[in-house]
């Protein structure tokens, strides 16, 4: 199994999840609200004549656990769906190997539960 994690802008969460489901049929995802910055180092905005700097921007961390042979396709689907057209700030996507994935309800390995 492979864990695919992605940091995306909040506005793209549903688009990314829909793209992964359409591509792979995978429906399990964990979404965690996060803040952070990359190369853009936050934003500067003005409110009532004062300039404010927001170093950390609102993001979301999405986690999928998928079969190894689907991981590359899921990564590409996420990258395509997360792209906003902005110059920067769309986030990242990466993979990690995962061992011993157990289904809590049944106590069986996830591969066994998903294949029936």
Fold and architecture overview:
With 116 residues, the protein is an alpha+beta fold. Helix content is 26%, strand content 35%. It has helices at 13-24, 71-82, 110-115; strands at residues 2-9, 30-36, 43-47, 50-54, 57-66, 92-97. The strands form two sheets. The protein has a four-stranded antiparallel sheet, covered by helices on one side. It has a two-stranded antiparallel sheet with strand order 3-4. A hairpin with a 2-residue loop joins strand 3 and strand 4 (50-54). Helix 1 (13-24) runs antiparallel to helix 2 (71-82). The longest helix is centred in the first third of the chain and has 12 residues, at 13-24. The radius of gyration is 17 Å and the shape is elongated.
Keywords:
single chain, 116 residues, two-stranded antiparallel ribbon, 3 helices
Unreliable spans: none
Major beta sheet, strand line-up:
2-5-1-6
The span between the termini is 17 Å
Quote the average pLDDT. Answer: 86
- Which percent range fits the helix content? 25-40%
Radius of gyration: 17 Å
Largest sheet, strands/sense/barrel: 4 strands, antiparallel
Range of strand content: 35-45%
Shape: elongated
Q: What is the element string, with H for helices and E for strands? A: EHEEEEHEH
In short:
By secondary structure, this protein is an alpha+beta fold. The protein contains 3 helices and 6 strands, in the order βαββββαβα.
Topology:
Blueprint: E1 2-9, H1 13-24, E2 30-36, E3 43-47, E4 50-54, E5 57-66, H2 71-82, E6 92-97, H3 110-115
Antiparallel strand pairs: 1-5, 1-6, 2-5, 3-4
Helix pairs in contact: 1-2
């Amino acid at each position: 199994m492979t864990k695919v994690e992605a940091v995306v802008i909040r506005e793209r969460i549903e688009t990314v999840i829909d793209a992964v489901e359409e591509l792979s049929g995978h429906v399990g995802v964990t979404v965690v609200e996060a803040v952070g910055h990359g190369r853009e180092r936050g934003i500067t905005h003005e409110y009532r004549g004062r300039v404010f700097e927001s170093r950390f921007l609102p993001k979301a961390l999405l986690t999928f656990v998928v079969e190894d042979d689907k991981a590359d396709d899921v990564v590409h689907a996420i990258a395509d769906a997360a792209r906003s057209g902005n110059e920067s700030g769309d986030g990242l996507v990466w993979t990690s190997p995962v061992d011993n994935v157990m289904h809590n309800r049944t106590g069986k390995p996830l591969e066994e539960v998903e294949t029936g």
